[in-house]
What we know:
Blueprint: E1 18-21, E2 24-27, E3 45-51, H1 60-65, H2 67-71, H3 75-81, H4 88-99, E4 105-109, H5 117-131, E5 139-142, H6 147-160, E6 166-170, H7 175-185, E7 188-192, H8 197-209, E8 217-220, H9 230-245, E9 256-257, H10 259-264, H11 267-270, H12 281-299, E10 303-306, H13 309-319
Parallel strand pairs: 3-4, 3-10, 4-5, 5-6, 6-7, 7-8, 9-10
Antiparallel strand pairs: 1-2
Helix pairs in contact: 5-6, 6-7, 9-12, 12-13
Amino acid sequence: xxxxxxxxxxxxxxxxxxxxxxxxxxxxxxxxxxxxxxxxxxxxxxxxxxxxxxxxxxxxxxxxxxxxxxxxxxxxxxxxxxxxxxxxxxxxxxxxxxxxxxxxxxxxxxxxxxxxxxxxxxxxxxxxxxxxxxxxxxxxxxxxxxxxxxxxxxxxxxxxxxxxxxxxxxxxxxxxxxxxxxxxxxxxxxxxxxxxxxxxxxxxxxxxxxxxxxxxxxxxxxxxxxxxxxxxxxxxxxxxxxxxxxxxxxxxxxxxxxxxxxxxxxxxxxxxxxxxxxxxxxxxxxxxxxxxxxxxxxxxxxxxxxxxxxxxxxxxxxxxxxxx
Length: 324
């Protein structure tokens, strides 16, 4: 009878790399096994992402949660006055409320418009400058996942940073323009590849050849939300983790998953047109985020980026957390 393959009977040569980011440990796994009590699995780290340039595109459940911050601001009027750019005062209020949650890392997505790009980038720089004194939690900076924008936006945002940050992200189309700024600033870089283990390894090699330390890389395999390609993304995460445990030094970086935005953009989490059998709309939307995140944690993700604070609280109760 064939022996069942498990992580316990694999020959493990090395653990997952451990990144110390502002006092938070990301990675360091020695095994997939959550049930062992000898520290084989590192605690997951949770980041809370805010659409900081245009908050109006946020999920309905996120807007509900941050109602306190929005109460003193008419969002529609704010965006009319500021040409769809968020005002610094509203952004500071949102950040203050976000930092009071259970998140380990604050993630700011600069979801600027592509119209008048240079002016938009300048506004994003000024916004980040004004926010930095108010930010006390470790910081992750996000672009748009758009080549023509990110190759200009991310280096410009890095210019004004006054601390080490996680930069998300570079891919095969943008890394040549983004990596030099990351290296010069001493930051950590998320490298995204489209659910492909071979391309993930190749990108780690290419960026390290440009001077980026392997200890400054987070692997993002890309993924879909619950029911929208999650299964394929889950399996690639597992394959990368297994290759790392077997000694592949070009795949043994911690994994990051942007589970929140993937879960909350699916139609079941965005639309209230379903029958009553689908349950309460707000509860369903939060559960889509929690369930998607729980899946990637069990697949081996070390840093999970979410959008609703209650999801982070629930997941820390389920899995523990780096700071909880």
